[in-house]
């Protein structure tokens, strides 16, 4: 097993089989000690968040499999906080696909003069480049195609699946009395060039409320999985 990357929230290893092993850590994105799934840097560590992230990711990836949504998921080991996945080619240097249901976080900070905080956004989809030095800048369809990051067909598919997958997650949360405010997803391509959902689906990349109260990422598995 060869370590190939140490990411913000996971360490990445290459297995002899050619598959990839993700080791979940207790780090989450944010700023000044405050969690923010839209942030581009590790802001704090929450003990147990790696275990929580993996358990939620396994639950949702297995749900997506039942619904015929392709993902890179192969298997997982909760005790070791690891997940085996298929290798994937990311879009460009990495592309974040965000679905927003409320005007909060980085969206509100950008557009605060145009929108009331917490306004309903009805599943607005945005894309940002994974570029810490540039602050994960927004990118639109024309730029994505012009720069060769994604084809027109791939852009349409990414937009469609970001909304559809987010709606599935939103519906699961709603059944538990929870509201999804926003979520960040990632996609890649397998060896045959087929698009699939990659990375994770956990409290670390979504913002969830119960009524007017923000739900901590570490608390989500207990509310969703039990």
Task: Produce the secondary structure layout.
Blueprint: E1 2-6, E2 10-14, E3 20-24, E4 27-31, E5 34-35, E6 42-45, H1 49-66, E7 73-77, E8 82-85, E9 89-90, E10 95-102, H2 105-111, E11 120-129, H3 141-146, H4 152-175, E12 179-189, E13 195-198, E14 206-210, E15 213-214, H5 220-224
Antiparallel strand pairs: 1-2, 2-3, 3-8, 4-5, 4-6, 7-8, 9-12, 10-11, 10-12, 12-13, 12-14, 14-15
Question: Mind explaining what this structure looks like?
Answer:
With 226 residues, the chain is α+β, with helices and mostly antiparallel strands. It has helices at 49-66, 105-111, 141-146, 152-175, 220-224, and strands at residues 2-6, 10-14, 20-24, 27-31, 34-35, 42-45, 73-77, 82-85, 89-90, 95-102, 120-129, 179-189, 195-198, 206-210, 213-214. It contains five helices and 15 strands. Strands 9, 10, 11, 12, 13, 14 and 15 form a seven-stranded antiparallel beta sheet that branches. It is globular and about 50 Å long. The termini are far apart. The mean pLDDT is 92.
Percent strand: 25-35%
Number of helices: 5
Strand tally is 15
Order of helices and strands: EEEEEEHEEEEHEHHEEEEH
Q: Tell me, briefly, the overall form.
A: globular
Strand-pairing-aware structural class: alpha+beta
Low-confidence stretches: none
| Rg on CA atoms, Å | 17 Å
Separation of the first and last Cα atoms = 34 Å
Overall pLDDT score: 92
Name the helicity range: 25-40%
The largest sheet is: 7 strands, antiparallel
Catalytic activity: 5-amino-1-(5-phospho-D-ribosyl)imidazole-4-carboxylate + L-aspartate + ATP = (2S)-2-[5-amino-1-(5-phospho-beta-D-ribosyl)imidazole-4-carboxamido]succinate + ADP + phosphate + 2 H(+)
Enzyme class: ligase
EC number: 6.3.2.6
Protein name: phosphoribosylaminoimidazolesuccinocarboxamide synthase
């Amino acid at each position: 097993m060869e370590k190939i990357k140490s990411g913000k929230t996971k360490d990445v290893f290459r297995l002899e089989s050619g598959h990839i092993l993700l080791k979940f850590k207790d780090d989450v994105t944010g700023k000044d000690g405050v969690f923010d799934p839209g942030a581009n840097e590790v802001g704090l560590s929450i003990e147990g968040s790696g275990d929580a992230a993996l358990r939620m990711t396994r639950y949702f990836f297995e749900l997506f499999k039942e619904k015929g949504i392709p993902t890179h998921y192969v298997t997982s080991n909760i005790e070791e906080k690891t997940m085996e996945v298929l290798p994937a080619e990311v879009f460009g240097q990495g592309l974040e696909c965000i679905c927003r249901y409320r005007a909060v976080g980085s969206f509100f900070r950008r557009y605060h003069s145009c929108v009331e905080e917490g306004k309903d956004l009805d599943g607005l989809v945005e894309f940002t480049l994974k570029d810490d030095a540039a602050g994960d800048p927004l990118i639109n369809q024309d730029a994505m195609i012009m720069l060769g990051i994604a084809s027109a067909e791939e852009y349409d598919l990414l937009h469609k699946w970001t909304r559809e997958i987010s709606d599935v997650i939103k519906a699961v949360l709603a059944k538990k009395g929870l509201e999804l405010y926003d979520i960040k997803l990632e996609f890649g391509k397998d060896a045959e060039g087929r698009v699939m959902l990659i990375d994770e689906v956990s409290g670390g990349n979504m913002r969830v409320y119960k009524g007017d109260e923000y739900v901590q990422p570490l608390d989500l598995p207990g509310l969703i999985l039990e």
